[in-house]
Amino acid sequence: MTATIMPDTVRLGFGRLVRSEWIKLRSIRSTIWCFVILVVVTVGLAAALGSALQPGGPVSSDSANGLLVTINTASVSLTALVVAVLGVLIITGEYGTGQIRSTFTADPGRTGVVLAKALVLAVATFVVSAVAIWIGVALSAALQSSKGVHADLADPSVFMPVLGASVYVTLLALLAYGIGLLVRSSAGGIAITLGILLVLPIVLSLAASVVQAQWLMDVYRFLPDQAGAQLYQYSSADAVPQDGVVLDGWGGLGVLAAEVAVIGALALVVARRRDV
């Protein structure tokens, strides 16, 4: 068997790689289902909570703002799992079908196509998540307003956590994408990603409680889900001080972004060195 060598004149530039990855992303059934689930869960839960929660009396401006943020970020723990699965499947699906050979033939250096796929995944995830969350904000704010709870949507303490929720799920999708690129297996990638998001926090939390070790709690706060959770937490003036390492929104963003960058860089190096 002779290998087909693609001439330099027909190799795709980054713009064309992005366009190609966008076509593939929107053509995959799992992408559509994951985004549909994300929208339904986000909007549905926001509307349900906005309708169900009843104020027990006069609500201060700070409490109203905090309640609106809580209502519209309650779905994040669920949608994060959805985009994590999508992040893995967007790359391992090509390994499973063998299409990855054609993908890497279009970009023999592999860096361009890996970055193009990550860019398309990030933009699509962020846009879908942001649109869904702000629809939920509009619905829940109207429902709560009818009950006398008036949140200030222009307040940075409301706007930033709502925006941060979309940033968080986007970064988790990229983290899962990097893991999928490393292991090249849908089952393995999903198991590892969900293990990091669901199992590891429980194990570390229990271990810290049993041995009463503050350093374990500090490590726990650097896990992707715990650091990323600071992106959509409402900063109340009545917040109780915590012991040990405490991350704010920007600190959580830095930690999660660094973890995504490290996994992504490692995955890219491995992908460039493997035969396929």
Let me know the number of strands: 0
Helix percentage range:
over 70%
Counted by DSSP, the helix tally is 11
Strand content: under 5%
* Contiguous uncertain segments of 5+ residues: 1-9
Distance between the termini: 17 Å
H/E element order? HHHHHHHHHHH
Question: What number is the mean pLDDT?
Answer: 90
> What overall geometry do the principal axes of the alpha carbons give?
globular
Radius of gyration: 21 Å
**Main sheet attributes: strand count, strand direction, barrel closure:** none
Class by SSE composition: mainly alpha
**How many structural units, i.e. domains?**
1
What order do the helices and strands come in, and which of them pair?
Blueprint lengths: L13 H14 L1 H24 L8 H13 L2 H22 L2 H7 L4 H35 L10 H28 L2 H26 L2 H7 L3 H6 L19 H25 L3
Helix pairs in contact: 1-6, 2-3, 2-4, 2-6, 3-6, 3-7, 4-7, 4-8, 6-7, 7-8, 7-11, 8-9
Structural features, described:
The chain is mainly alpha-helical and 276 residues long. The protein has one domain. The protein is 75% helix and 0% strand. The protein contains eleven helices and no strands. The chain has helices spanning 14-27, 29-52, 61-73, 76-97, 100-106, 111-145, 156-183, 186-211, 214-220, 224-229, 249-273. The longest helix has 35 residues, at 111-145. The radius of gyration is 21 Å and the shape is globular. Mean pLDDT is 90; it is low at 1-9.
